[in-house]
Specification:
six-stranded mixed beta sheet; globular
């Protein structure tokens, strides 16, 4: 059995409240860097032999303190664990729901089960499972790896691994900033084995919804 840890990135500098999705130029705040440093200590005494992350700036910056613990390991930047595609990218979301209230966007929300506004949940789950299995093959039996990704892809992988429907309420995702979800891979079968929030004391209060 292999253990693959999926870590969410830290807080992002996004003062205007846009949905930044896969857009370039969105970096961690100082708090986000502090959160990443705090959560990276979770891996200090673990036999990590593989590092992989989304190619976006916020995930690469979150990976930095993790990679510093394992200087001999190269980081694989993998599009399979990138943020979900979303047609609202670049629009202001926030508490006001400005983008949702725009009549031009109403056709995008006709089918929340898929969802109609972006990449299908099933497609996200499939690419995340592929990355998890690939990582397990690299580390081998009893090996462990770290993947830094984004909230929605991690949560959809969690839902699939636990046999639940992929459509869900975003407010109920168990995937806080820099949280770490452990997935076991045993003969190709993927299960959720742990969930930790090493930087819990640094989380914004109330929690800030992010991507």
């Amino acid at each position: 059995m292999s253990i693959i840890y999926l870590m969410r990135h830290g807080q992002v500098d996004n003062p205007t409240g846009v949905l930044y999705e896969r857009l370039p130029g969105f970096h961690l705040t100082q708090l986000g860097r502090d959160m990443a440093a705090k959560s990276s200590q979770f891996f200090t005494d673990l036999p990590i032999t593989h590092l992989r992350c989304s190619p976006l700036e916020r995930t690469r910056e979150t990976m930095e303190p993790v990679a510093a613990l394992f200087p001999d390991l190269e980081i694989l930047h993998d599009d399979q664990v990138i943020e979900a595609g979303n047609k609202f990218a670049g629009q202001v979301m926030g508490a006001s729901g400005k983008a949702i209230k725009n009549p031009k966007n109403w056709p995008l929300v006709l089918n929340p089960l898929r969802p109609s506004w972006g990449e299908a949940y099933a497609e996200i789950a499939e690419r995340m499972f592929t990355a998890i299995r690939e990582s397990a093959e690299i580390v081998g039996d009893n090996g462990q790896a770290v993947i830094v990704s984004h909230q929605l892809p991690i949560w959809v992988a969690h839902l699939r691994a636990t046999g639940r429907r992929l459509f869900h309420d975003p407010r109920k995702r168990q995937c806080s900033l820099t949280s770490i979800t452990g997935f076991s891979v045993d003969q190709g079968q993927i299960s959720v084995v742990s969930y930790d929030e090493p930087a819990r004391e640094l989380l914004p209060n109330p929690p800030m919804f992010g991507f």
